[in-house]
Amino acid sequence: xxxxxxxxxxxxxxxxxxxxxxxxxxxxxxxxxxxxxxxxxxxxxxxxxxxxxxxxxxxxxxxxxxxxxxxxxxxxxxxxxxxxxxxxxxxxxxxxxxxxxxxxxxxxxxxxxxxxxxxxxxxxxxxxxxxxxxxxxxxxxxxxxxxxxxxxxxxxxxxxxxxxxxxxxxxxxxxxxxxxxxxxxxxxxxxxxxxxxxxxxxxxxxxxxxxxxxxxxxxxxxxxxxxxxxxxxxxxxxxxxxxxxxxxxxxxxxxxxxxxxxxxxxxxxxxxxxxxxxxxxxxxxxxxxxxxxxxxxxxxxxxxxxxxxxxxxxxxxxxxxxxxxxxxxxxxxxxxxxxxxxxxxxxxxxxxxxxxxxxxxxxxxxxxxxxxxxxxxxxxxxxxxxxxxxxxxxxxxxxxxxxxxxxxxxxxxxxxxxxxxxxxxxxxxxxxxxxxxxxxxxxxxxxxxxxxxxxxxxxxxxxxxxxxxxxxxxxxxxxxxxxxxxxxxxxxxxxxxxxxxxxxxxxxxxxxxxxxxxxxxxxxxxxxxxxxxxxxxxxxxxxxxxxxxxxxxxxxxxxxxxxxxxxxxxxxxxxxxxxxxxxxxxxxxxxxxxxxxxxxxxxxxxxxxxxxxxxxxxxxxxxxxxxxxxxxxxxxxxxxxxxxxxxxxxxxxxxxxxxxxxxxxxxxxxxxxxxxxxxxxxxxxxxxxxxxxxxxxxxxxxxxxxxxxxxxxxxxxxxxxxxxxxxxxxxxxxxxxxxxxxxxxxxxxxxxxxxxxxxxxxxxxxxxxxxxxxxxxxxxxxxxxxxxxxx
Length: 791
Known about the structure:
Elements: H1 4-22, E1 35-38, E2 44-48, E3 55-56, H2 65-75, H3 87-99, H4 109-118, H5 125-141, H6 144-154, E4 161-162, H7 164-172, H8 181-189, H9 203-219, H10 225-231, H11 248-257, E5 266-268, H12 273-290, E6 297-304, E7 310-314, H13 343-352, E8 361-364, E9 383-386, H14 387-392, H15 396-406, H16 408-417, H17 427-430, H18 443-458, H19 496-507, E10 528-533, E11 539-545, E12 549-556, H20 568-580, E13 604-609, E14 623-628, E15 641-646, E16 665-670, H21 674-683, E17 706-710, E18 716-718, E19 730-736, E20 742-747, E21 750-756, E22 760-763, E23 768-776, E24 781-789
Parallel strand pairs: 1-5, 3-4, 18-24
Antiparallel strand pairs: 1-2, 6-7, 6-12, 8-9, 10-11, 11-12, 13-14, 15-16, 17-19, 19-22, 20-21, 20-23, 23-24
Helix pairs in contact: 2-8, 2-9, 4-5, 4-6, 8-9, 9-10, 12-20, 13-15, 13-19, 18-19
């Protein structure tokens, strides 16, 4: 039977063991850590000081072998043999402490980890005993490697530098893995006396400690004598160095999204460090030219299409000392007007929906829709233009008219489905201006949307033409972020074939400067690209897409100040092409020649009118059977070809009311409405208007022979004063199918003038509502109300 004393001792020992077990928290160190951004190879890009003013990097599980050799040789040579306490060293230190002799170090690395955790600098016997117990307990829960990692991440290295990672960058501007034996030995002796690192102080003492350690490493066989001698010749570090700031805006974004965290402060980013530096150089070089025109800000983003990973993230020109630049603003994440950068999305959507074919003629004429009066950048009109050319030339009027047909509410919904997250108002708030930059988008969302489209095009063969939702996801910058799961989604309205045609049209855009001759060189890179310029010349955009990459560039002023010449094609596009020159062109089975593969699935062949680009009707004289998007079969039939009756000479139109059937001939004719024809024939000199009616013939089915181009119905016109102060005039414009027709004009039932051939008349009506009436020499008449306003 156990004696009472032994039983009590056993209970006390059990309680002591339980207490020891409970003495360690789940996480030892809870001090705030610096926010750190690494590139995709683990190299430091940017860092910010911790909340307590210390340069303390997040915990690193990996400790370089050189540091392990140095620190164990210097601090704890029996580290891998003892259970947390070195009995010989501890006993020697305790005896020296009791006897009053000079203190000796008896703390193992494990005990030093405990001291750093407890933040207790006392060297009393009771503190030592407590550290001993906790060190033994620590060894039960942590491996030797983990204890070394705790030490390396939390040891003081002088000043406000804590941890090996921060010390390596602050003193040597390199990662610990890149340090030499001499540099590692210098850092290994610092936690024992961190004040030695102060510039101008204690340099000789620090040098002696480092060299002594190098000699001991050589004696132990961890370093050759020759290497130790050479290492002793290396200089000591000078004052602490600034940390890299290669991605300050990405660091800022990461901090914002992880604010309040004391542990998850290291971002393992997707950034390619070498590309980041090269893109930064391109941005800075162009900025030095742009700032002379008062354009102060510029940002760029490079995405990998397949993964959506951000390979380069330049949130702004970074000059923190220049307050005028507002370089702290991350423009990649700032909502800005996209100008025309959304037009390719509408084009692809209408192809996908079967509302349009790539070569279909779309109207480009003066347009007013409920008071909205869009204009092309050059203020001119083509009358009619193939849809793909309208996109390549970024014409505003055709885009607005197409959006009216597609419906802006549908387009609004499509943009949201593809990741545009800044449409904070209802669709009606933006209306038709949505297509011309009347909304705001971020570069992050815009580039991510184009990357999703490119993925759909790339995967058309793998997915048998089916669009999977896993292909549509935002861009990402965190290597550890989980990819979106792939699943079939019937609610994604853009198919791979329509996206391919959209990218083909974007490839036709005329490139600026020396890039304009790119097609003459076999080595030139095919790029689908689009520019954008916001109202008031406040934003210049360029977005380019290849099967491998998306490059987006924005140029402007963060305060919204517009500048003359701030046009996307002139300011942002040159930057974009310079960045593309940094990127490799890879020819793969998925992207032969570095370009998107022609559709292999989900398409159909249909007959297309060669002249108008519409689905051919029976009157189209020339047709081509072409590969088109899957719903092209329901696109509109050609509305511009009709059979006309001509006399035997072919010079006059006739009908059975004025010509014998045997003397008539039939011919298919390309006929545009009057206003479209008026502008179209100015740019297309081979256009043949309808022959005139033969004298004595009438044609009730001829349609409208005359149209009033300006003003549109209900238009409110402001007429400014002339330079001399006199009242300005309004130019009224009409067109007639018969080039020889006369038009008689009247204003408010008062005769105003006659025109022939060129039907324009300058009038000066007073303020108020008026009616203008036009009558041709055949008696055809049209009238329209308009209003003159004064300010």
